[in-house]
């Protein structure tokens, strides 16, 4: 039994990041690919700060941090970014999670039909390989 209590939000953050980091090892074809992905995830070269921070944090440019309009560097608009942030948070916080679904699960014919459909679909596509994409970018 644990002797300390972790806040739910911190536990959620740690779990989310742990899963993202470990997926890299399972999906990469080589350790060189792992290194590239980790450099992109944790390297300073992908950090862009608002340009008005440049006067206070200009020493970070030596580490590869860039100062510019943040939304320009990701190729989007403020409305598009706000929409995706709200959509993602809504999905994560408002829908039932798997633990809740397991506790409230009641087997019935509807679930059986859905399970049979998923099983048959999986068996039909079992011999096909697909490419796994880490990031989908909308332009």
Order of helices and strands: HHEHEHHHH
Through-space gap between termini: 49 Å
- Biggest β-sheet strands, sense, barrel: 2 strands, parallel
Biggest sheet, spatial arrangement of strands: 1-2
Tally of DSSP helical segments: 7
Could you tell me the number of beta strands? 2
Form type: extended
Mean pLDDT rating = 81
Strand content: under 5%
Sheet/helix structural class: mainly alpha
Low-confidence stretches: none
User: What is the radius of gyration?
Assistant: 21 Å
For the structure shown, list the relevant keywords:
mainly alpha, extended, two-stranded parallel sheet, 139 residues
Secondary structure blueprint with pairings:
Layout: H1 8-27, H2 31-42, E1 48-49, H3 54-57, E2 66-67, H4 70-74, H5 78-94, H6 98-103, H7 109-124
Parallel strand pairs: 1-2
Describe this structure in words.
- By secondary structure, this protein is mostly helical.
- It contains seven helices and two strands, in the order H-H-E-H-E-H-H-H-H.
- It has helices at 8-27, 31-42, 54-57, 70-74, 78-94, 98-103, 109-124; strands at 48-49, 66-67.
- A two-stranded parallel sheet has the order 1-2.
- Strand 1 (48-49), helix 3 (54-57) and strand 2 (66-67) form a beta-alpha-beta unit.
- It is extended and about 65 Å long.
- It starts with 7 loop residues before the first helix and ends in a 15-residue tail after the last helix.
- The model has no long low-confidence stretch (mean pLDDT 81).
